[in-house]
Design brief:
The chain is built from six helices and two strands, in the order E-H-H-H-H-H-H-E. By secondary structure, it is mainly α. 27% of the residues are buried.
């Protein structure tokens, strides 16, 4: 193990899946600790019911892929799971539906991480997404939670750089 030269700050490593608490500025507001790309705001009802019906379910696959890709663009610490998510939906029958189910529940954790990174309370739950998904409302729930992150940045267009606080 090597030690940093004297006078230089030591880097901290965090484990357990939770980001460190945001650094508080002198005036009490969180200070930006990183940057990412803003996500696209989608109509929750359109993503949940309208477009999947019009496209015979194809939009559900597109939505699942795009949401994972946008979450990675927003916060690169989360890891890129967009291709893995799409493959889980396409070939999930090989695992009797377990792989897509795991990816669907993990999406709730990724959204909660994005909420923390935006300086919002992490309200999204993979368990709630799973339970609502059983009754067909999972996409609606997840899109409403994602829109909270997008709304945090006001009228910032999708793909525009935004600051992360956690």
């Amino acid at each position: 193990m090597s030690y940093p030269p004297q006078g230089q700050p030591q880097q901290q490593h965090h484990q357990g899946g939770y980001a460190p608490a945001p650094v508080q500025h002198q005036q009490g507001g969180p200070v930006a600790t990183g940057a990412g790309q803003n996500m696209k705001r989608r109509n929750p009802v359109g993503a949940w019911l309208g477009l999947p019906m019009i496209t015979f379910g194809i939009y559900g696959l597109v939505w699942f892929y795009k949401v994972h890709a946008e979450l990675f663009g927003f916060d690169r610490r989360s890891g890129d799971a967009s291709v893995n998510a799409l493959l889980s939906m396409l070939f999930g029958a090989c695992t009797l539906g377990i792989w897509p189910l795991v990816m669907y529940v993990k999406l709730g954790g990724r959204i909660a991480q994005a909420q923390r990174a935006a300086g919002l309370p992490a309200e999204c739950s993979g368990g709630m997404g799973f339970l609502l998904g059983i009754f067909g409302f999972g996409v609606l729930y997840y899109q409403i939670q994602l829109n909270k992150v997008v709304d945090r940045y006001g009228d910032t267009p999708p793909g525009q750089q935004v600051s992360l606080v956690a």
